[in-house]
Design a protein that fits this description.
By secondary structure, this protein is mainly α. Helices cover about 50% and strands about 5% of the residues. A hairpin with a 2-residue loop joins strand 1 and strand 2.
Length: about 450
């Protein structure tokens, strides 16, 4: 029997609600839509008993099952519109959106993502790759010559920012060589990678191998290599200086050279030491080769300081180098931290290559996207590092329908990505350590670490 309500015009039946078919079963959860989902089923509306002398005592109470709250016609019409607009499931769908768990296993496989990416996105064009190298090297030398020629105080800050960004662009091309996405020729990749990375004081093979470890273990608490979280035990054993430097701007953005020498807290070894536990025995010759190239570049800079003077070398190379380091640390950190959601990290059986890769983030860098070769398209790059950088945008667009909610659309940037500074600061305030136990863990905040006061 249909329920009835009292309106200003009398008795009126409730509108019928037809449930929309679902592709998968859902558990019913009472929604907050008006009176239709009161915690109580209803109550009887009883009018006072009317006693008449001639007919004896009769109870003329009208038995009508009604809700506890009786809306006006206007309120009823509003509720009707809400039902009609989305077949009565608007709030329920919103709840489903809110209840998405990024740590849950995805309903798709790595092969599904791979199949969605067009075949031509996997093709490596060495001539196109080399054209980017020629472009970037020409810009680097052009900027240096122009700054030295003008040699005015107001030009140097602009030069440092531009040249540091170009050093970062050179790093990204060498990074592609390390992944083998530069070309299918390992010798070409190695030669170009050494020239590019040695020129900015990066040991090519030492970094390449540790970066491979990062990709193979992305999202794993203990086995990841780059910007992995500290366990609570390691965090609490940090000395005050180390803890302050790691979580106080700008110090984390200057960490890369120290990481090359000593790795992250809780890990040992050096990217320059062939006997480091970063490497296996058959990789030691490669590490020695890269260390020799790095040393040759350092010696060249020392020689130039005698010829040009140390101040000139500092202005032309030293300060841009540290701008490059800040770019590298900012980008690599924010590709794994700083999202509005608290994203999971994994251990044990819960970790998989796919689940770990899905915790990475894309970022928009505005005008810098083209300069640093679309490194912001990070999710697909992490899952398929063999895709050339110039095909990553198309590959990402093709994969989005498969990734669904596991892909987090990056916030649109202005011409320059100043908005990312806020993401960085918020993350350093809250993302301090993860639990020592558990296979799916999330960052926790140390209330004793008053980072905000240090930033002001």
């Amino acid at each position: 029997m249909a329920s009835w309500i009292l309106s200003e015009c009398g008795l009126k039946p409730l509108p019928q609600v037809f449930h929309r078919p679902r592709a998968r079963p859902i558990s019913y959860k009472p929604s907050k839509i008006g009176f239709l989902h009161s915690d109580k089923a209803g109550t009887d509306l009883k009018f006072p008993s009317i006693t008449t002398g001639g007919l004896g005592d009769r109870n003329w109470g009208l038995k009508v099952s009604v809700p506890l709250r009786v809306p006006s016609i206007e309120g009823e019409e509003q509720n009707q519109e809400r039902f009609n607009g989305v077949n009565g499931f608007k709030e329920e769908e919103e709840k489903e959106e809110l209840e998405f768990n990024p740590g849950s296993p995805p309903p798709f496989k790595l092969a599904d993502i791979r199949a969605a990416i067009p075949k031509h996105c996997w093709v490596k064009n060495p001539w196109r790759s080399m054209s980017y190298v020629v472009r970037d090297v020409a810009v680097v030398f052009g900027l240096a010559v122009a700054a030295a020629y003008v040699n005015q105080w107001f030009v140097w800050p602009l030069y440092w920012a531009a040249q540091g960004t170009m050093f970062w662009a050179l790093f990204v091309l060498g990074h592609d060589c390390g992944h083998g996405s530069f070309s299918n020729n390992p010798k070409l990749n190695s030669v170009v990678g050494h020239l590019l990375h040695s020129s900015i004081l990066v040991p090519y093979h030492g970094w390449r191998i540790s970066h491979r470890t990062h990709h193979q273990n992305h999202g794993h608490v203990e086995n990841d290599e780059s910007w992995h979280p500290l366990s609570e035990r390691i965090y609490k054993n940090l000395d005050v200086i180390t803890r302050t430097l790691r979580f106080t701007v700008p110090f984390p953005m200057l960490a890369y050279p120290f990481y090359l020498w000593n790795r992250s807290p809780g890990k040992t070894g050096s990217h320059f030491d062939p006997n480091s536990d970063l490497f296996v025995p058959n990789e030691r010759k490669d590490v020695i080769t890269s260390t020799i190239c790095w040393t040759a570049m350092a010696a060249l800079l020392v020689g130039l300081s005698f010829v040009m003077g140390p101040v000139q070398v500092l202005k032309l190379y030293g300060i841009p180098y540290w701008v490059f380091v800040m770019w590298l640390d900012l980008v690599t950190y924010l590709h794994h931290h700083g999202h509005e959601e608290n994203l999971p990290w994994y251990r044990g059986k819960e970790w998989s290559y796919l689940r770990g890769g899905l915790t990475t983030l894309d970022r928009d860098y505005g005008l810098i996207n083209n300069i640093h070769h679309d490194i912001g398209t990070h999710v697909i790059h992490h899952l398929f590092p063999q895709i050339p950088h110039y095909n990553l945008i198309e590959a990402t667009e093709a994969a989005k329908p498969v990734l669904g909610k596991y892909y987090r659309e990056p916030k649109k940037s202005g011409p320059l990505p100043f908005h990312l500074i806020g993401n960085l600061i918020r993350s350093l305030k809250r993302d301090h350590f993860v639990s020592d136990s558990g296979d799916v863990v999330y960052y926790q905040t140390d209330p004793k670490l008053d980072v905000s006061s240090k930033l002001n």
